[in-house]
Amino acid sequence: MNGNSWYKEMAVYHIWCRSFCDGNGDGIGDLWGVLSKLDYIKSLNVNAIWFSPIYPSPNADYGYDISDYMNIHPDYGDLDLFRKVLDGAHERGMRVFMDLVVNHTSDEHNWFKESRKSRDNPYHDYYIWREGRLKGKLRWKHRIPPNNWMSLFEGEAWEYDEGLDEYYLHLFAKKQPDLNMANPKVREEVKKIMRFWLDMGVDGFREDVITFIGKTPGLPNSYPKLPVANGMKHFSNRPEALEYMREFKNDVLDGYDCFIVGESPLTSADTALKYLSEGPDRVLDEMIAFNHMEADCFMTDMIQRPFDLKKMKRAFSEWQEKLYGKAWNALYIENHDHARIISRYGNEDYRVESGKMLAAMYMLQRGTPFIYQGQEIGMLNIDLPDLDSYADVQTINSARVAMRFMPKKKVMELVNRSSRDNARTPVQWSSERNAGFSDGEPWFPVNGNYREINVAAQDGDPDSLLNFYRKLVRFKLDNPVALYGDYKELCADSDRLYAYLREYEGKKLLVVCSFTAESVRFEAPEDFDLSRGEAVFTNYEYNYVVSNGFTTRPYEVRVYLFE
Ligand code: GLC
Ligand code: CA
């Protein structure tokens, strides 16, 4: 905030701590593990780390249900240990961002425990409590929830509390009651939390579903009941949310040299610009968009479609073009909310080739690249035997809903492909026991492919995916054309190639990516002489180009620099 722009020359490594590295042998990743891997993270050439929530949490949604905002989950260590990690990261030239989840808390947070004690408890109004509606006549009269909204994770968005004879709102799981951000006291609490971490030296926040924090006053009914999230227009991108964000900026964030990236499901580039446009009104530095992650599904990862390259390209290009000169993109293809990208948009049979292609494809666009743990070594989806083996609340609940409409076998196929748990298996450090993740019994299954796919096997191999990532990050941060160049998509009609051009101060960068194992002819634009470009990245032995095009090999990527 406050007009800085260092985030434009930044690459971020994203840690989901529970599965990153276990330092004390209890099977759970922790901050001792992170401390031991700071040199490894630095070796990727990134200059920042974002932690998914590491606060105390009953883990209904693995940290995204927080019970104490100003502490560290005992599974992960304590505040002193966190300070060591923070200092260690800073000493190595890496900034540190915390996840800030303030749309909701855990139902085990003290505020919520107080709030449900009585209607006149001082914390009652920290949450969104409402009386039910009455339906039916005479002896058929019965109580129904205050409105017809459905949650994103667990049935109706309202949960009844008998003691109070009221319902509380939860847009996610039942154990994640929504905070009442319209209450100024709640906003003061949020500011306190922000100051607590910023004063400690943390460099900013990734703000979880921040565009959901404002709700339409009066909480009216929405579209007819759908199985999930029908109330969207009353809780997503409301003007109230923008106002609260502005207040956080004015009262706290502008006073610090910090970075704020918001997360916003189902938001278009146009809407994002309301928060991101550079100038005094900017309330977020970047936005984690979802459009490009919907090229093989519809709205949610659970509703599967065949991968549609054109859809992916349109999404990327739209954000690139609309934000150009106005705002800055957050670039990512993996995080803790999505299945592994090679298994989705690449090809497991061409794991290394497609992994390299996907890496260059997103990282060389205009914006700040984020790399999710394990992505850099090409970790893949895991095949789990049954629903009981899954841990993720969203997976389990949406599978249960789907089983009402579909045969179990079909649902399990969908779950296997789309579950967030695919990205939450322990990081594969070596071919040793438990992939070197833990000396104890890992809290979640290690992917059986760890003997081939692991950090140790790739570390010293100059052709490995890991070293490709290292070089790519270095290149991205060292080359103004990769940072600041404009963006022009080429061959937009192709359903097998994605190519784009970046240009800055006389230098050009041409990125050509094949999304197929078949051979496809790429022709460079007429005014290009490929033979004069330097092939700075390729995923095959380089074929010298004599004509102005080439025929691709499976999942080939070529990046040419023209000086
Ligand atoms: C965000 C998080 C996700 C979490 C949800 C509810 O989308 O990334 O992991 O389940 O918000 O907090
Ligand atoms: Ca541990």
In short:
Helices cover 27% and strands 17% of the residues. It is of the alpha/beta class.
Low-confidence stretches: none
Radius of gyration: 24 Å
Report the top-level CATH class of the domain at 10-98 and 330-382 and 425-478.
Alpha Beta
The distinct bound ligands, ions and cofactors come out as: alpha-D-glucopyranose, calcium ion
CATH superfamily of the domain at 10-98 and 330-382 and 425-478: Glycosidases
Task: Give the averaged pLDDT, no decimals.
Answer: 96
What is the fold-level CATH name, i.e. the topology of the domain at 10-98 and 330-382 and 425-478? Answer: TIM Barrel
**Order of strands, widest sheet:** 11-10-9-3-2-1-15-14
Number of strands: 22
Structural class: alpha/beta
Q: Kindly report how far apart the N and C termini lie.
A: 34 Å
CATH architecture of the domain at 10-98 and 330-382 and 425-478: Alpha-Beta Barrel
The largest pleated sheet is described as: 8 strands, parallel
Percent of residues in β-strands: 15-25%
What global shape is seen?
globular
Helix count equals 16
Q: Helical percent range?
A: 25-40%
